[in-house]
Specification:
Layout: H1 4-8, E1 14-16, H2 18-25, H3 33-46, E2 49-52, E3 64-68, H4 74-82, E4 89-92, H5 99-104, H6 116-130, E5 135-139, H7 151-157, H8 164-178, H9 182-186, E6 189-196, E7 199-206, E8 214-216, E9 222-228, E10 231-235, H10 240-243
Parallel strand pairs: 4-5
Antiparallel strand pairs: 1-3, 2-3, 5-7, 6-7, 8-9, 9-10
Helix pairs in contact: 7-8
């Protein structure tokens, strides 16, 4: 049986706490906590729902993210891509590679095609999804829905490996270093590699956060991004009340 909170995770990543889940299931959070955690984990795994951070790690009131761990078929994912970009779906050709220059000015060492603006743009999209109800980012997919793949990106992320695992590790490092409270933000990002016609692309599902997600500025400070249509736009601090309910506590 699934409680209401866990059932919502079947359609999109959802944040909650272990205490909230125990209460919904009517499980003991006192002397019988260990048995309750085992029961809770078994129940979620039975419906292919994962929990980050994992059950058993941290406190009962720490924020967790529930999301399905079963793999969607490539065909179903390609149907989503065919529908084009929208407020909760965005395409990126790469995380590191300046794809346009790589195609138009070939012949240079691969490292010379690395572009910080490309990486920064992807981080902005992740930040905006966290602040705007969540969303899905497809990397290795062009704006026209063509799957271009990430072969060169894999090599830029980890030249010695040149595979998805090295790329994923690089992404996790970027999340932790570029965001305030980056380790927590990384828990809201679920990454899945997919392949079609010999090309590997990546689906990144980003869950909505209760707390605002701030992207660090180069040189200090922070930026807040939200989704506006198919764009990720910055919000100035003096405009925050237009987008969020802010309660003064002083």
């Amino acid at each position: 049986m699934l409680c209401y909170i866990a059932a919502r995770a079947l359609t999109e990543p959802i944040e909650t706490t272990i205490r909230a889940l125990l209460e919904e299931y009517g499980l003991d959070s006192g002397a019988g906590l260990l048995v309750s955690l085992i029961t809770l984990r078994a129940n979620l795994e039975g419906f292919a729902i994962g929990c980050e951070p994992q059950i058993g790690v941290g406190d009962l009131d720490d924020i967790r993210v529930l999301s399905v761990t079963s793999v969607d078929s490539v065909e179903s994912v390609l149907k989503v891509i065919a529908g084009g970009e929208r407020a909760d779906v965005e395409f990126k050709s790469s995380m590191l590679l300046d794809v346009r220059r790589y195609r138009n000015e070939p012949g240079e060492p691969l490292e010379s095609y690395r572009l910080e603006a490309v990486t920064r743009a992807m981080m902005k999209s992740i930040a905006a999804f966290c602040n705007s109800g969540g969303g899905t980012l497809f990397v290795g997919v062009e704006d026209n829905t063509n799957v271009c793949g990430l072969a060169e990106d894999f090599l830029l992320a980890n030249p010695s490996r040149g595979d998805f695992d090295g790329w994923d590790q690089y992404l996790r490092g970027q999340l932790e270093s570029r965001f305030h409270d980056g380790k927590a933000v990384a828990n809201y990002v679920r990454v899945l590699p997919l392949e079609t016609e010999g090309k590997t692309f990546v689906r990144i599902q980003v869950a909505d956060r209760v707390h605002l997600t701030f992207l660090k500025k180069t040189g200090g400070g922070a930026e807040l991004f939200v989704r506006s249509g198919t764009r990720s736009i910055p919000i100035e601090f003096h405009d925050m009340e237009k987008h969020y309910s802010i309660i003064r506590r002083f």
